[in-house]
Design a protein that fits this description.
The protein is built from five helices and no strands. By secondary structure, the protein is an all-alpha fold. Helix 1 packs across helix 5. The two termini are 20 Å apart. Bound molecules: heme C.
Length: 120
């Protein structure tokens, strides 16, 4: 599937992007920020479970009420789109309803994405 969504040019990117292979003990603790709303498996709470989120089309969990803007975003979640979404949610999906304080620390996002990658 093609990712037709174009990311805004001016969003913040950590230099070099996530380095996913590096082992890091901080991963689990970083995910706790998300775990208030997101499960680490396929179960859906107020928000979708994040197992297998990488490679998934945004807003595509049928049992959930996503915002229209999320459903229409046509984003396919990968390391890059998730990285930017977590740093600046409203720039990637303007009007999305994820009530969440942004994660501005590059290392935290890198750890988090590495963690998401192993959720199946
Ligand atoms: C307070 C609750 C809450 C927290 C905390 C939260 N989220 Fe969300 N998340 C949501 C909601 C609600 C949506 C649906 C947003 C929409 O439809 O606009 C969402 C959507 C998402 C999506 C899109 C899922 C899809 O299937 O398209 C991703 C990816 C995501 N969140 C990742 C994260 C990550 C990573 C964290 C932790 C850094 C996090 N969220 C923290 C509530 C939360």
């Amino acid at each position: 599937m093609q990712n037709s969504h174009r990311l805004p040019r001016d969003v913040h990117r950590p230099r070099g992007g996530p380095r996913l292979s590096r082992p890091c003990p901080g991963r689990l603790s970083v995910f706790k920020v998300c775990a208030a709303c997101h499960a680490k498996d396929h179960s859906n709470r107020a928000a979708p479970g994040l197992a297998d989120v990488i490679g998934r089309t945004a807003g595509n969990v049928s049992t959930l009420h996503f915002s229209l803007t999320m459903k229409q975003s046509k984003i396919v979640w990968d390391e890059e789109t998730i990285d930017i979404y977590i740093a600046e949610p409203q720039k990637v999906v303007p009007g999305n309803i994820m009530p969440y304080a942004v994660m501005t620390n590059d290392q935290d996002r890198e750890d988090l994405i590495a963690y998401l990658e192993i959720l199946k």
